[in-house]
Specification:
The chain is an alpha+beta fold. It has helices spanning 11-26, 52-60, 64-77, 118-128, 168-177, 192-200, 213-223, 225-243; strands at 27-30, 35-38, 45-47, 102-107, 114-115, 138-144, 157-158.
């Protein structure tokens, strides 16, 4: 009879594994634009790292205890990013992974204005005082936005879906990033089948109204006055700008 005992797992190790599982289930790291993408069904939008825990709690009903651990993990890991640097991709670029792609229209006169409806382009024409032209004033395109279909950030860019896939080097880089999430170590003994099941779980929660996001920022201001108050100001500024341009459906 063997005297060897089964290895025990500490509470910290269990907590780390749980955090890592939830992060990989919901989020995709987009280092180029310093954001993370919530890939849950019905979501498909970018989430600022500082808001990741709150998004999971408010939108996907993840427990408050777990989302606090997730927020702490992301803060401590830092993810190698500095500040709020998310821009938007150039038109005709390949789609950003995890972000919803949908039908849109583009102004044929300037080529810069993109929208979800013909009416918005017509209003743009009047506002921009474009010269009269023959033929159609719009071009039908496929577009993305960091806010997905309903989020606050509705800066659109045109995508070329024929460019999907990426190079072999990019796929290898993606695999490397998945080995660690925000400083959370990879468990070398983790069963690969369980990990695949976690990724393939049926997801049923539909994304909630993004207007609730402003309310949730108050608790972050209390938590870290310097950092979170600055984030709140940035979000409010963008919301005010977007309010002049975006028609919410």
């Amino acid at each position: 009879m063997s005297d060897k005992q089964e290895p025990t797992v500490s509470e910290d190790e269990e907590s780390t594994a749980e955090v890592r599982t939830v992060l990989k289930k919901y989020y995709l790291d987009n280092e180029e634009y310093q954001t993370i993408i919530c890939t849950d069904e019905g979501c498909g939008r970018a989430v600022d790292p500082w808001y990741a825990g709150t998004h999971l709690r408010k939108t996907h009903n993840v427990s408050k205890v777990l989302t606090k651990r997730i927020t702490k993990t992301i803060r401590e890991g830092g993810m190698g990013w500095k500040g709020h640097g998310r821009g938007i991709p150039e038109d005709e670029s390949r789609p950003q992974e995890g972000i919803a792609v949908f039908d849109g229209v583009r102004c044929k006169c300037c080529g810069q204005f993109k929208a979800r409806s013909v009416q918005e382009v017509e209003e743009h024409w009047r506002w921009a005082e474009h010269e009269e032209t023959t033929g159609s004033m719009i071009e039908r395109v496929r577009i993305q936005s960091w806010g997905g279909r309903k989020g606050a950030d509705q800066r659109y860019w045109v995508v070329d879906e024929d460019k999907c896939g990426g190079s072999e080097d990019e796929r290898l880089e993606k695999d490397r990033k998945e080995e660690s999430w925000g400083g959370v170590p990879e468990d070398s003994n983790e069963d690969s089948n369980e990990e695949s099941e976690a990724w393939g779980e049926e997801k049923g929660q539909v994304a909630s109204d993004e207007g609730k996001e402003m309310e949730s920022l108050e608790e972050w201001v209390e938590d870290c006055p310097i950092m979170w108050r600055r984030r709140e100001d940035e979000w409010r500024t963008w919301t005010e700008i977007a309010g002049d341009w975006v028609v919410v459906y």
